[in-house]
Amino acid sequence: xxxxxxxxxxxxxxxxxxxxxxxxxxxxxxxxxxxxxxxxxxxxxxxxxxxxxxxxxxxxxxxxxxxxxxxxxxxxxxxxxxxxxxxxxxxxxxxx
Length: 96
Known about the structure:
Radius of gyration: 13 Å
Strand order of the largest sheet: 1-2-9-4-7
CATH topology: Jelly Rolls
Shape: globular
CATH architecture: Sandwich
Number of helices: 0
Oligomer: single chain
Number of strands: 9
Distance between the termini: 40 Å
Order of helices and strands: EEEEEEEEE
Mean pLDDT: 96
Structural class: mainly beta
Low-confidence stretches: none
Helix content: under 10%
Largest sheet: 5 strands, antiparallel
């Protein structure tokens, strides 16, 4: 039986008719769980390190740097995992 990973903790900071801004906190080895994005979004890392992305096409690592944002379009399906031995934090802004 596979050991279950701890869950990342989302905290919605802003929600209105234009955006949803969520802070995500990942403990070491924490994950979001599989999900599909229904909206375009921008992520701004608050921590420097790697995240492991599990997709239907396989796994790959992303190197992220504090304050360097990236954009993704809706439809992305994945599980995000923190492989670091420290907490990883990012802020995600979904565009309505």
